Amino acid sequence: MLEIEQEVTALRSTRNKPAGSVRIVAGEHAMDAVLWPVLKAFMVQYPEINVEVTVDNGLTDIVDGRFDAGVRLGEQVAKDMIAVRIAPDMRMAVVGSTDYLARFGVPQTPEQLADHRCINMRLPTRGGLYHWEFERDGRELRVRVDGQLTLSSLSQRIDAAENGLGLAYVPEASVLEALNHGRLVRVLESWCPTFEGYHLYYPSRRQHTTAFRLLLDALQQSKS
């Protein structure tokens, strides 16, 4: 009799636990810097909730892709979506190794990047190369750079820069350790802009599950 009561209690406990599935699409940096640190604890706290994250640096249509939500920088979110900030503003950085800068010099203005080997990134949605964005004293510049390498992976662009293969344009937070340890040196710092941080966005008319709301709450709490 005691065993039966214990089984019933365990069954009720399982039924009371939040359950369900959540599908999210996010870029590589958003996944590494924002989602993954939260998910590691979230999955342990809610063992009955399944989370699927597709890493895609393109501007994926979350409705066509049947995703519950996506993660983008605030300025990239469509106006008809509900957007919830889940990360602080993000500043960019142009970095290179000491060896590279000793060989090719230090650019003083964005225009001087034309004389440098820059590590490009191709935009998966539009197919073109990303134009590096700069701003100072109200002046905005978008510079198309050239170089030997074009890499879609952020971690590979950073590694290439550390190995002296060119200058890279990356989120500042992703290279702080390399800067602190001297593996990379920052250039054009006064020109590097700050973008509105990552937002979780989703269609306004979609009804969301308890699992989705719990994950959204966890992401919002991690921002503070």
Automatic annotation (TrEMBL):
Gene Ontology BP, a term: DNA-templated transcription
LysR substrate-binding domain segment(s): 16-221
GO molecular function, one term: sequence-specific DNA binding
Gene3D superfamilies documented for this protein: 3.40.190.290
InterPro entries found in the cross-reference section: LysR-type_TF_proteobact-type, LysR_subst-bd
Transmembrane segments: none
Highest rank taxon of the organism: Bacteria
Pfam families (UniProt xref): LysR_substrate (PF03466)
Sequence similarity: Belongs to the LysR transcriptional regulatory family.
Protein name: Transcriptional regulator, LysR family
